[in-house]
Structures are given as structure tokens and as C-alpha cells.
Amino acid sequence: MKNTLTFCILSLFIILTGCSKDSNNDPDNNPGGGNPNPTSEIFTAKVDGNTFLADDAAAIEVISEGVKSVSIVAGEGENRGISIGIPSFEGVGEYPLNDPTNPTTGSGAYFEGDLIWTLGEGSSGKVTITSYKPNESIAGTFYFTGKDLSNSSMKTVTDGQFNILLIRL
After folding, report:
1. How many angstroms separate the Cα of 11 from the Cα of each of 31, 44, 78, 93?
2. Where are the alpha helices (DSSP H) in 19-152?
3. What residue segments make up the domains of the chain, in order of their start?
4. What is the pTM of this model?
């Protein structure tokens, strides 16, 4: 799970600092191929009841040793973000986040400034993939509760939904 979280954080940094919405509209600037503009591209959630509406969001699909994994990252403003990792991705379906009985469980994190609330002991969540078009787009819903290890505060992320670009690396 630590590797998945590290991958999500790195992916969030790369996507949110290296891309802009304008660059996605240029077909010559779309090295992953696929549709650069899925219909109704959106990423929203509630964080402790407050609206999170992403300025930029994308999903990255990686296939390693025959196993697919997907990292979904979104940023709002300059210092807020959400990431979701699915280490054993099989397409449309439900994926538990932080299920201690499942070795391939997913991860989730909420970022604000220098603080990161991650899934850990006593927290859980779920992501449901409702649409998956390889190398084009991914859509679904999610929720989770995260804990900041530096101060033990909790953040509840609910009503999450997305329909975003999917890039295969």
C-alpha cells in the first residue's frame, strides 16, 4: 500500500504541475493517445461537507507483469487534491479502499497544504467504476475517511464522482 500511495502522490504532482486543460485540447500534445476530452469531464466530492471541484484531473493506467493498476488524481486550486489508487484493476466494478482482509486493496488520500489524510487503521472507503474505456476515459463514484498521521485529525470524503481522461503508460 505504501508503494501505491507513493505512486499516487508522484502522479498527482506530475499531472497537476505539468499539465493544463489547454494542453489536453491539442491532439499533437496527447502522447497517451485516446480521447483527450471525455464527455462531461468532471471530478467532484465533499470533504467534511465542503465542495471539492477539481480544476484538473486524470487517471493513469499502468500494466506491470500482467497486472493493471489505476491511479486517479485531481487538484483544486494550488494546494488541495485527492488521489485514489486501485492496484489490481479489472474494469467496471467495486474496489474496497483499505480493506485489511484484501491484499490488493486500494488507497485514497486527501491533500491540503502540507497535510495528507490517508486511509489507515480504523478508516475505509470504496471506489465504484461505472465506465471504463481503455486509453480513453474512466468514470465512477467514491468515498473514504482519511487520517493525518501528524496530528490524528480526520477528513471524510463523500459523494465523490468522476468522469475523466485515462492515460495508459
Report:
1. 16, 18, 15, 23
2. none
3. 2-168
4. 0.77
> Residue 136 carries which side chain, given as an amino acid letter?
E
Instruction: Tell me if residue 95 falls in helix, strand or coil.
Output: strand
Q: Give per-10-residue mean pLDDT for the chain (169 aa).
A: 44 43 41 46 96 95 92 94 94 87 82 90 89 95 91 92 94
Of 93, 122, 123, nearest in space to 108 by CA: 123
Cell 492496484 maps to which residue?
87
Residue 164 to residues 39, 66, 71, 74, 85, Cα–Cα distance (Å) = 8, 24, 12, 10, 15
Query: What is d(CA 148, CA 71) in angstroms, rounded to the nearest whole number?
Result: 20
Residue 134 to residue 168: CA distance in whole angstroms = 8
- Measured CA to CA in angstroms, residue 136 lies from 13, 36, 64 at distances of 21, 7, 19
Distance CA 2, CA 85 (A): 11
Query: What is the C-alpha to C-alpha distance for residues 1 and 105, in angstroms, rounded to an integer?
Result: 8
